[in-house]
Amino acid sequence: MDNRPEPRLDARTEALQSRLGYRFTDPRLLQRALTHRSFGADHNERLEFLGDAVLNLAVSSLLYERFSGSDEGDLTRVRAHLVREDSLHRAALGLGLSEVLRLSDGEARGGGALRPSILADAVEAVIGATYLDGGFEPATQLVRQFFGDLIFGSEADSWAKDAKTELQEWLQARKLPVPAYRIVATRGQAHAQTFDVECAVPMLGLTELGEGRSRRTAEQEAARRMLGKLKASDRPGGPLRL
Questions:
Q1: Which pLDDT score, from 0 to 100, does residue 113 have?
Q2: What is the distance between the alpha carbons of residues 136 and 122, in angstroms, rounded to a whole number?
Q3: CA-CA distances (angstroms) from residue 234 to 8, 48, 56?
Q4: Which of 33, 82, 137, 198 has the most beta carbons within 10 angstroms of its beta carbon?
Q5: pLDDT value for 1
Q6: Would you give the end-to-end CA distance of the chain in angstroms?
Q7: Does 240 score more than 80 pLDDT?
Q8: Contacts with 3 (C-beta within 8 Å, 6 or more apart), sequence order
Q9: How far apart, in whole angstroms, are the C-alpha atoms of residue 39 and residue 37?
Q10: Per-residue pLDDT tens digits for 159-188
């Protein structure tokens, strides 16, 4: 049993509870969820681990409810769109997590409070903390708050395969190796970097560049451009008919 006194949350963290729509019985869980490993030993990585599992289960449950006629492949694809870093980063910005994260002075000076990976991890940690404090139902309500409009306001066929998946399947269907991705340049400060990523299909002698605020976004853009080029080439009269 933890006999330490419960922490007194500051005004910004109290306001966060209002935005979450959930008040913690044990405020220490919320405080830990907002603590980056750079700040101290009682950080949020274990809660992030738990929150990732809760998030996937909650999203799966909501998708099962919403898309009763969809098969496993469709549901898996939609879930992958929802639980990726970009989506969690947007959820974190909507909650204002950057204002309440506990970071070391060095991490804060380096722009850690705005780093997409740190913010996405904090969202998962908050979900994990909510689950420990109140159970699966309030955690699911929190996930519904993040993604409910997307899930219940769309149709399953509107969630197209992401460009990297579609490119890989296009190549494999033609017995060609999967593409290779590499970062060719990064620009900007650590908290606001832009990535240039190359997508290469060596067997065809083709490369395409993509740009994005994260490596994943840049890879998707490069894959989208490569896919467009290959599809154009695959049409009758295309320059690289395969």
A1: 87
A2: 18
A3: 64, 44, 37
A4: 33
A5: 46
A6: 67
A7: no
A8: none
A9: 5
A10: 656 789 889 989 999 999 999 999 999 988
What percent of the chain lies above the pLDDT cut of 70? 90
Total residues found in the chain within this entry? 242
- Strand, helix or coil at 189? coil
Instruction: Say how far apart CA 59 and CA 86 lie, in whole Å.
Output: 16
pTM value? 0.67
The answer for residues whose C-beta is within 8 angstroms of residue 142's C-beta and 6 or more apart is 20, 21, 22, 126, 127, 130
Residue entry with tokens 């067997």 = 203
Find, among 52, 66, 13, 57, the residue nearest to 35 by Cα. Answer: 13
| Structure tokens, 179 | 């593409």
For residue range 112-123, what is the model confidence (pLDDT) as tens digits? Answer: 888 898 999 999
**Catalytic positions:** 52, 124
Q: What are phi and psi of 180, to 5 degrees?
A: -115, 140
The DSSP result for 125-150, as a single string, is HHHHHHHHHH-HHHHHHHHHHHHHHH
Whole-angstrom distance, CA of residue 205 vs CA of residue 37: 44
| CATH numbers and ranges of domains, the chain | 11-156 (1.10.1520.10), 163-234 (3.30.160.20)
Of 111, 75, 115, whose CA–CA distance to 93 is shortest? 115
